[in-house]
Amino acid sequence: METLIKAFESIIPKDCIISDVNKMANYNTDTSTFKRQIKLIIEPENHQQIQAVVKLANQLKISLYPISSGHNWGYGTSLPTFSGGVVLSLKKLKKISIDEELGLLTIESGVTQQELYDFFSKNNYPFLVPTTGAGPNCSIVGNALERGYGITPITDHFASVMGINAILPTGEIYKSPLLENNFTPILKWGLGPYLDGLFAQSNIGIVTEMTLLVERKPETINTFICKVKDKQFTAAIPIIRKLLIEARGNIAGINLMHKKRVSMMSEDYFDCSKKKYSDWILVGTIYGTKQHAEATKKQIKYSLKQITKKILFLSVKKARFISRCSKLLPSKLLPKLKTEMYQLKDIIGLFDGIPSEVSLRLSYYKNRENEHSYGLDPALDGCGLLWYSPIIPIKNDYVESYIKFVTETCVKYNIDPALTFTSMSTIAFDCTLPILYRTSDLIEEEKAISCYKELLTEGRKLGFTPYRLNANLMDTTLIRNKTYHHLFQMIRRTIDTNNIIAPGRYE
Question: How far is it, in rounded angstroms, from Cα 291 to Cα 181?
Fold first, then answer.
């Protein structure tokens, strides 16, 4: 170990090397009791240091596991897929620049949602942060590379990536074709074979910088909310698909959340588990000019009148006013209403590109005593969380089959099926299902892991495949022994002869 530390000290500053067991513990903490044997944590300050680290790792035959913010909660947090390696944290890479005319943002891998929001606010840049429910302290680049999605107009975050800079396992620098030729990256594909996609959900290199297209703030942003009764649920699916097609460009996406899922964000397990919930909450957002917004409102009212009686339209300004009014409510008599009204500004704010921890509260459903007012960290706070994230066609037979399958599987393992459907396009829903448990109860965790594995394997038989996987459970991956997997392995073995970059990741 002393030899290893000295080797790294020759290429990066001492304060960028973490060998203290107590400090390393934060990197070895997950929303599960999974652990890894980590030799060292290193936090390089720039691309040149990362290059030197990669070259040294090749010499010493040491595996590296790159992370960005390390807040991949529910998918492994910052835990490597293997033991005995070095965690390479990119959290110190914080550079941000933007071409304001074109809306082309260039950021390094350590930039979080909150830091990007502060950058836009400080400089009065009229752009929306590609927010997610993961919270303000999560990496923009990391989410895009995991092919994450959000609820602002550019829903698919990797689709907005126009170019990348990366360090290959050889220590060479990779740049997207237009960037390497000093052209403005206005064409995602560049010229010739498209290679940027190889860096998403893979272990072929270390992405240090990314250029992506960000959405300009429109003239109006209006969120619409309504209740859909259980008996109207079947009718709602084709209506949602038709509305997304007809209002393409004006509605970014639609969420259909079961009322229990909504309640689990604010209530605790003991209160929530005693109640019976029915009905669904439908939420979507209109983006555009005032004229577009008015026309889209009419279209929404006409389309949804078959499945709901009343639709509420809210701007962030209105939501803030309602939140202020909530302070006047008596806490003892109306605690739930007071909480929901106060949270409204944060929920609506996510659609307006304002990072928030409001969705992160779901992680504390069975751990509410450890929840605090801000700076939530489900891993450090001992929350048990695994995400099952399948993609489902927006068709009644698939959606109904999925609900039946998930409900029966979760009930078998005593897991609350907190259902929500989020449109990723006009043809596909994502249903990011939280498997929540107490990490202090090993039997409960064993059931949660068994539930996750059964959802993966049996769900695949029904036509439901996840769009991402937990780093601790990639031995259950569904891509092994497929032609495209063999092709990727041939490419990877050619450039990573010593197998140093994240062995086992999506393999």
Answer: 42
Percent of the chain with pLDDT over 70: 95
Cα–Cα distance, 368 to 365 (Å, whole number)? 6
Element (H, E) at 387: strand 383-388
Cα separation, 17 vs 88, in Å, equals 10
Compute the distance between CA of residue 215 and CA of residue 183 in angstroms, rounded to an integer: 21
How much of the chain is helix, strand and coil, in % rounded to 5? 40, 20, 40
Alpha helices in 375-441 (DSSP H): 396-412
Check: CB of residue 299 under 8 Å from CB of residue 246.
yes
The SS3 assignment for 364 reads helix
Does the CA dihedral 21-26-27-28 come out positive or negative? positive
pLDDT tens digits along 32-86 = 999 999 999 999 999 999 999 999 999 999 999 999 999 999 999 999 999 999 9
Burial group, residue 465, by CB count within 10 angstroms (0-12, 13-18, 19+): middle
